[in-house]
Design a protein that fits this description.
Probable membrane transporter protein, 244 residues, transmembrane, TM_pro_TauE-like, transmembrane helix, TSUP/Inactive_protease-like, 0% strand
């Protein structure tokens, strides 16, 4: 099982770096397929996000201007949202968590399909309170279904706040630092964390995220958008199959 978990970590880390996601959208279906129940998969997913998001964001911050500023503001809201999520998670049946996950994927696919692959709009400083508000509510729902928040945050950043897609994915991964730490603390307090499995996958994800970011930097914007949409469609199919 340890080798299997390391492989899961490598795959999850690569997708985290490339797509700017926490990795839950990839990791949770894989864990469900090998026998973990939804709440166990959520806990493991949250822990590995801490590993991949911190290292991946460190790499991204070297090349993207303003990433740290906007990421911290969103993260302030996200960490409180992640803390609140631990109160809701134990009381929600596994099947309802899967329905919420599916609805989130459908929403993301629809909004990204209509958004441009890249934007040349000059980036202005966004309203601090708006970013905190967005971070808080995304943090609540994201941690309740075991994802870092990028799946919900990405379409908001690209379509409504007019971020370039690649910048938005990097910001989404930075956002995951805060939401995952909040979720990790909350899940641990309520006794639902699986530390051993989460640590093994987390170590593998650190290696994977490095290569994911390197490949992303060399990918054209139009192709990158297609890859993001394909990822979400793939995960949606798996989740529908597992849920029906």
């Amino acid at each position: 099982m340890e080798l299997e978990l390391i492989v899961f970590g490598l795959i999850t880390g690569f997708t985290s770096g490339f797509f700017g996601i926490g990795g839950g959208s990839i990791l949770i279906p894989m864990l469900l397929l090998v026998g973990f129940v939804m709440k166990e998969a959520v806990a493991i997913s949250i822990m590995q996000m801490v590993f991949s998001s911190i290292y991946g964001s460190f790499l991204n911050s070297k090349k993207i201007k303003g990433l740290v500023r906007d990421g911290i503001i969103l993260g302030i809201g996200a960490i409180f949202g992640g803390l609140v999520s631990g109160y809701f998670l134990p009381s929600i049946p596994n099947i309802y968590l899967q329905y919420i996950f599916i609805a989130t994927l459908i929403y993301t696919i629809y909004t990204l399909f209509r958004a441009p692959a890249s934007q040349d709009v000059e980036q202005e400083d966004k309203n601090i309170f708006l970013l905190i508000f967005i971070g808080f509510f995304v943090g609540i729902f994201a941690m309740s279904i075991g994802i870092g928040g990028s799946l919900m945050l990405l379409p908001i950043l690209v379509r409504f706040l007019k971020y370039d897609l690649k910048v938005a994915t990097a910001l989404g991964l930075f956002f995951v630092i805060f939401s995952s730490i909040g979720g990790f603390i909350s899940t641990s307090i309520y006794g639902n964390m699986l530390y051993y499995e989460g640590a093994i996958i987390g170590i593998g994800s650190v290696i994977g995220v490095y290569f994911g970011i390197k490949v992303k930097e060399k990918t054209k914007a139009t192709s990158y958008k297609k890859f993001v949409l394909t990822l979400n469609l793939f995960v949606l199919i798996i989740m529908i199959y597992k849920t029906i």
